[in-house]
Amino acid sequence: MIRVLLVDDQPLIRSGFRALLDLEDDIEVVAEAANGLEGLELARVHLPDIALIDIQMPVLDGIETTRRIAADPALTGIHVVILTNYGLDEYVFDALSAGAAGFLVKNIEPEDFLHAVRVAARGDALLAPSITRKLIHRYVSRPLPTTTQPALEELTSRECEAVVLVAQGLSNDEIAERMVISPLTAKTHVNRAMTKLHARDRAQLVVLAYESRLVTPGS
Question: CB neighbours of 50 closer than 8 A, spacing ≥ 6?
Fold first, then answer.
């Protein structure tokens, strides 16, 4: 059973998502919150698999809520999915950097929404390769940060290669084809790289690839 926490300040949005999720045999909405602070408290109580969090809310917004969940060792099993009306905007980039597993636009088709919840619950990449490419295009146009960069010395050469391909927007199947390995081995390389770089998910791995200068704009 996939346990979901809904955090959105609009009751109509929450009720719509809940009605859709409650129809599924393998998904359970364990709690609802109207702002990030309530959501954070309920996350600690219920420990959901997925927290669907609106990006703009009163009291505590989605970005700060995500950051606090990601920083709490007791909440490491929660995959945060950001809900937004605006698609790829600056708020989304901030949320991904804060530790979100991905994002969904609120006008998503119901079947795509349910698929995304299940994908996120498995711990797999929520962002489709096409969305990842858009993320990369927008991210690399921004100045690289001057903060301490993640160390890469623990990565094997094959893991580094896999990270570069992830940062180019390739799926595991495409990585497997490029590296001439099985999709399972490709996924293993990606997962090990995420573990070693302390990346919560594939989206953060893309950010780390650029921040570490393993990949550079135009490379």
Answer: 2, 3, 4, 5, 78, 79, 80, 81, 117, 120, 121
Contact 198, 150 (CB under 8 A): yes
Q: Amino acid identity of 183?
A: P
Q: Could you give the CA distance from residue 145 to residue 127 in angstroms, rounded to a whole number? A: 23
Span 161-185, pLDDT tens digits = 999 898 877 878 889 999 999 999 9
What end-to-end distance do the CA atoms of the chain give, in Å?
Answer: 42
194 to each of 148, 160, 190, 208, how far by Cα in Å?
A: 18, 11, 6, 10
Amino acid (one-letter) located at 207: V
Please tell me the pTM assigned to this model.
Answer: 0.70
